[in-house]
């Protein structure tokens, strides 16, 4: 046996051990990445609540257990805000129901046509009252989205009538009748829908619900004019950002892949705008938007689209003015009805710095409760055992649970109020 054969004979027994070591290192690396990306070591906990100690808040926390119990997302992926957001945004709800409603058309003074879908309750409300939920979906969304259908079906079964706004231009089969579509904070269409409900059902009381961009719109609507709060029992806002101006810079950062989400949302907005290009830019009436379409095609962020297109629908002179005038942060302090603000700490779209707005508001105003969950992503809040989520989410349950508590609170109030009024008249 020569020296080369001897060397091979002495080295070869070590090779399997070396390969086994490399395999173990590779597996350990993959597991480490999975644990970090899926945030598996993160604990579960009840929502972090900010509120003032009042009879109303004590009644609420006793009557709405979802706010005080531990929120437990699906074990393998539910602690990742990105996967929660992706499942909501791309995959939709699991086994989503298909509630049957009637589409309503409302002409606006500027020639636009607002649409909303009306769903009647599937039974009596537990208080015996007539209650209508007026719902504003997220950006570019409408009544046919899976998360809206799931929530409406659940609310109907609990005795609520539901009216869901279809954002102007969001439905692909509904043409625009004026050179304008929905914007970040325009409340005209939502106001028109609420006005219709109040006129058609003079006995009904309202629960106002807004998701994401819809949360900004409903809070701004209520704060714009005290008249808008008449017959409103309460309001719930889920996963909104409160101030578009403050959020603008954070949306250009790569932290939490926020810049990537910005790109995806901008791409979706471009598709919606271009699907209505004739109504917005090519109408024969002369009432069209002056915009550089080449800049729209090359836009990679919402800010570029807002500056080139969206701000011009309402004549804002600059992007800063558009964001300032259309953000609810300047109106929300005027809301006097009970207000529940819900956000998730791992929401990749809402920067941590924006959460100081609802936290400060809840600390100062007795009608406001701010609930911050550790997990849930953006409009995710899925629940489930290990892998497969339930169709109904924590978000759905907490909105209906809060609404039920407020309806019960209102039912207990009238005798007390009437007694006080009688005493004042007699005194």
UniProtKB/TrEMBL annotation:
Chain's role: Progesterone-dependent acylglycerol lipase that catalyzes hydrolysis of endocannabinoid arachidonoylglycerol (AG) from cell membrane. Acts as a progesterone receptor: progesterone-binding activates the acylglycerol lipase activity, mediating degradation of 1-arachidonoylglycerol (1AG) and 2-arachidonoylglycerol (2AG) to glycerol and arachidonic acid (AA). Also displays an ester hydrolase activity against acetyl ester, butanoate ester and hexadecanoate ester.
Protein family: Belongs to the AB hydrolase superfamily. AB hydrolase 4 family.
Biological process annotations from GO: acylglycerol catabolic process; medium-chain fatty acid biosynthetic process; medium-chain fatty acid catabolic process; sperm capacitation; steroid hormone receptor signaling pathway
List of catalytic residues: 212, 347, 378
Keyword Transmembrane found: yes
UniProt topology in membrane: Single-pass type II membrane protein
Keyword Hydrolase included in the entry's annotation: yes
Ranges for domain AB hydrolase-1: 132-385
Cell compartments where the protein resides: Cell membrane
PANTHER family assigned to the protein according to its UniProt record, in alphabetical order: ABHYDROLASE DOMAIN-CONTAINING PROTEIN (PTHR10794), MONOACYLGLYCEROL LIPASE ABHD2 (PTHR10794:SF80)
Coiled-coil residue spans: none
Superkingdom classification of source: Eukaryota
Gene Ontology molecular function, alphabetical: acetylesterase activity; monoacylglycerol lipase activity
Keywords: Cell membrane, Glycoprotein, Hydrolase, Lipid degradation, Lipid metabolism, Membrane, Serine esterase, Signal-anchor, Transmembrane, Transmembrane helix
Chief location category: membrane
Catalytic activity: a butanoate ester + H2O = an aliphatic alcohol + butanoate + H(+); Hydrolyzes glycerol monoesters of long-chain fatty acids; 2-(5Z,8Z,11Z,14Z-eicosatetraenoyl)-glycerol + H2O = glycerol + (5Z,8Z,11Z,14Z)-eicosatetraenoate + H(+); an acetyl ester + H2O = an aliphatic alcohol + acetate + H(+)
A Gene Ontology cellular-component term: sperm plasma membrane
Entry-linked InterPro entries: AB_hydrolase_1 (IPR000073), AB_hydrolase_4_sf (IPR050960), AB_hydrolase_fold (IPR029058), ABHD4 (IPR012020)
E.C. code: 3.1.1.23, 3.1.1.6, 3.1.1.79
Encoding gene per record: LOC101079077
Protein name: Monoacylglycerol lipase ABHD2
Enzyme class at the top of the EC tree: hydrolase
């Amino acid at each position: 046996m020569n020296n080369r054969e001897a060397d091979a004979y002495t080295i070869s027994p070590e090779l399997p051990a070396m390969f086994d070591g490399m395999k173990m290192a590779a597996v350990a690396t993959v597991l480490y990445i999975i644990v970090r990306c899926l945030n598996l070591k993160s604990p579960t906990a009840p929502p972090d609540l900010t509120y003032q100690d009042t009879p109303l808040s004590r009644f609420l926390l006793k009557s709405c257990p979802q706010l005080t119990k531990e929120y437990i997302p699906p074990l393998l992926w539910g602690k990742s805000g990105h996967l929660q957001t992706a499942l909501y945004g791309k995959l939709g709800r699991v086994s989503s129901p298909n509630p049957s409603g009637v589409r309503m058309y409302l002409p606006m003074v500027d020639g636009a046509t607002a649409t909303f879908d009306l769903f009647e309750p599937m039974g009596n409300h537990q208080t015996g009252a007539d209650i209508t939920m007026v719902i504003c979906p997220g950006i570019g969304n409408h009544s046919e989205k899976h998360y809206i259908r799931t929530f409406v079906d659940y609310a109907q079964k609990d005795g609520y009538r539901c009216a869901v706004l279809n954002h102007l231009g969001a439905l692909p089969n509904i043409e625009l009748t004026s050179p304008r579509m929905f914007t970040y904070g325009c409340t005209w269409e939502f106001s028109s829908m609420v006005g219709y409900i109040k006129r058609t059902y003079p006995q009904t009381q309202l629960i106002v619900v807004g998701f994401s961009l819809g949360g900004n719109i409903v809070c701004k609507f209520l704060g714009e004019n005290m008249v808008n709060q008449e017959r409103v029992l309460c309001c719930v806002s889920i996963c909104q950002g409160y101030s578009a101006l403050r959020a603008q810079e954070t949306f250009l950062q790569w932290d939490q892949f926020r810049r990537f989400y910005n790109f995806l949302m901008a791409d979706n907005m471009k598709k919606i705008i271009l699907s209505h290009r004739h109504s917005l830019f090519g109408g024969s009436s002369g009432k069209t938007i002056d915009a550089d379409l080449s800049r729209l095609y090359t836009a990679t962020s919402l800010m570029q689209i807002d500056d080139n297109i969206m701000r011009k629908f309402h004549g804002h002179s600059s992007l800063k003015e558009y964001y300032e005038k259309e953000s609810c942060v300047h109106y929300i302090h005027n809301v006097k009805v009970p207000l529940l603000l819900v956000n998730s700490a791992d929401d990749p779209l809402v920067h941590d710095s924006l959460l100081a707005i609802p936290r400060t508001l809840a600390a100062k105003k007795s009608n406001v409760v701010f609930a911050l969950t550790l997990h849930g992503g953006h409009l995710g809040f899925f629940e489930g055992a290990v892998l497969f989520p339930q169709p109904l989410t924590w978000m759905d349950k907490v909105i209906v649970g809060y609404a039920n508590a407020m309806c019960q609170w209102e039912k207990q109030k009238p005798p007390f109020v009437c007694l006080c009024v009688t005493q004042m008249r007699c005194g």
